[in-house]
Amino acid sequence: MNKTDIIIVGAGPVGLFTVFEAGLLKLHCHLIDSLPLPGGQLTEIYPKKPIYDIPGYPSVLAGELVDNLMKQIEPFKPEFTLGERAEKIEQVEDKLFKLTTSKGTEIFAPVIAIAGGLGCFEPRKPPIANIEHFEDRGVDYIIKDPQKYQGKKVLVAGGGDSALDWTIILADIAEEVTLLHRRTSFRGALDSVEKVHELATSGRINLITNAQAIGLNGNGVLNEVVVEEEGKENYAVPVDHFVPLFGLAPKLGPIGEWNLEIEDNAIKVNTFDYSTNIPGIYAIGDINTYPGKLKLILCGFHEGTMMVQSAFRYIHPDQKLSFKYTTVAGVNGF
């Protein structure tokens, strides 16, 4: 029997850090992820994107953060099942779940921690008739490596944090950057909005608002984006790449069929310990919801920390939990 203490569904940053906190309590973890590598969205979508809100790091690349988390949990020897989706859970006896993956792998544990980020996701695409024709031929829905755009003409569409952040980053890399947004106001961080306006004022980027992309032109490879701008006739912008960043459409996938309490496509939890309505199952990170929820990595780190404390008491109700600081004995001292 493939048995562990905690099955973590999702090997993103929150799932990885939870391994560390569980390891401090002598709890062993087995992580499952449909992606082929640990790191979740940080690895799959934007490994070269800087992250600015991790304590102690003024800036850290997403891929570097994943590498550091993997080093941090190495002493606790977690097991991984990657490239397989968590498909089904069954309670086979008191305090014992069986999780079956899409490839038939079976793992048993008394506790399941769902750290699946946004769940299964796909990019939201703009309603442009021929956009699929140019996918991977100039249209990109995510940016994995910004160096791909070195010396290129790039049009970024969107008004959220991702569009703003990548516009700022690409301003130092691409030959020409245009940010297109259908409104004059943005949904992103105020600091990023100010930086974008400064770049536009200094002529380092082109900023087009009250406008949207309505067509794409090119002979097999994209070379123009047709823009509809308020108060003007439609016109074409010469580009090498069109990057619409309208966010991801989250889908819970099989998790939505596990009889968990769901609200707005997220799992409701008790903020005391991030437990769900099913004893022994917890949800941490972006996949959960509660009053005041913030979808930040550092909040997920906190949730994972609190969750393993409760998981220890659930697994070992007769044992006294002695919490220590890592500065007292060090990782290997626990």
Give a written overview of the molecule:
With 334 residues, this protein is an alpha/beta fold. It is 22% helix and 27% strand. The protein has seven helices and 22 strands. A five-stranded parallel sheet has the order 5-2-1-9-21, covered by helices on one side. A four-stranded parallel sheet has the order 13-12-11-17, with helices on one face. Strands 6-7-8 form a three-stranded antiparallel sheet, with no helix packed on it. Helix 1 runs parallel beside helix 3.
CATH superfamily membership of the largest domain = FAD/NAD(P)-binding domain
Please state the average pLDDT score.
91
What is the CATH class name of the largest domain? Alpha Beta
Query: Given the structure, what is the number of helices?
Result: 7
According to DSSP, the number of beta strands is: 22
Count the domains: 2
Q: What percent of residues adopt helix (DSSP H or I)?
A: 10-25%
Structural class: alpha/beta
Radius of gyration: 22 Å
In terms of per-residue confidence, which ranges show pLDDT below 50 for 5 or more consecutive residues?
A: none
In the CATH hierarchy, the third-tier topology of the largest domain is known as: FAD/NAD(P)-binding domain
Oligomeric category: single chain
List the helices and strands in order: EHEHEEHEEEEEEEHEHEEEEEEEEEEHH
The dominant shape is elongated
The strands making up the biggest β-sheet line up spatially as: 5-2-1-9-21
CATH architecture label of the largest domain:
3-Layer(bba) Sandwich
Largest sheet: 5 strands, parallel
Strand percentage lies at 25-35%
End-to-end separation in angstroms reads: 27 Å
